[in-house]
Amino acid sequence: MNSGTETGDLKAGFRDRLIAERKSLHEHRRRHLDRSICAHLLRFLDDRDCLHMAAYHPFGGEPNLYPALEALHHAGRRVYLPIVDGRQMEFRRWQPGARMTPNRYGIPEPLEGRSIPARQLELVLMPLVAFSMTGTRLGMGAGFYDRCFSFSLEQPDSGPYLVGTAYSLQQVDSLPAQSWDVPLDAVITERGLNSFRD
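Structure (tokenized):
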């Protein structure tokens, strides 16, 4: 078995196990964890001068950030959600009450609103399946975020601050990183913020 196949098998094993664990959270427990994540997120953003930021619509048991996103919108921040277009991803403005439509994966996207280039975002809240304390992120495997922010691999100081949002149960000791994997700058769980880079 070659190293590429071994890496793929390892990632698939992490995905299967952690998605199942995430989905198995009791609804009461999930709401409690989501409230904690939102509280840590709002405290973190209190100290950051950030106008244009992206988030996501929760899918497959991902943390629900909408309470924090509504508060951020009312505080004057501009929130964008991902739009999938073929193999590419862009970001469209979201506001509370915005009309949404499911994409081909069944994930709701804003129907209307201004789009923004990924490079002009100042902060991106990213869903994930697993993360390690080196900042390595494991997504669903389609590569949308890695392609969208690939420019940050060559220009680490350009583009947005990338923050994973997850439950602490999604932390693993280590993850295989490949050359195209875009690392996280930080991750927020119900336990607080972990920064990997300044």
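The CA atoms of residues 126 and 164 lie 5 Å apart. The helical segments are 3-23, 27-46, 66-74, 144-148, 151-154.
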